[in-house]
Amino acid sequence: MSIRRGLGRGLGALIPEGAANIIGPPTGRPAEVPVTAIRPNPRQPRTHFDEAALEDLTASVREFGVLTPILVRRAERGFELIAGERRWRAAMAAQLETVPAVIRDASDTESLEVAIIENLQREDLNPLEEAAGYAQLMEEHGFTPV
Length: 146
Known about the structure:
- This protein is α/β, with parallel strands linked by helices.
- It is 39% helix and 15% strand.
- The longest helix has 15 residues, at 108-122.
- The protein is globular.
């Protein structure tokens, strides 16, 4: 699939039609992955995690578990988060041993794209985090502003 790498025309320029297939297919149904085998995504555009909201999520995870699987990719040692860092942090804080995770094949670029998309769809990034994410796409992965 050819993806046009343009920024500056709104989210639609970043999320092409068929964006559900932006990264490789899942390797199967969600697996229970040890929380300690997962490392954060170094390309995570979000730098601030609201402590009160995270505490609320942790309380929910303690009571009901993680209801929506996180998204990970295989890493040199264990797994790297693609999407779901708040759920993963809450699972760690709730002292869960495992977390449901969908394992995907994804390049660094695809991992960053999905992290930005997921953050924009769920809880807005602040303007500086959003700009830093777009700058990273431009500098490291050849995206253009138009």
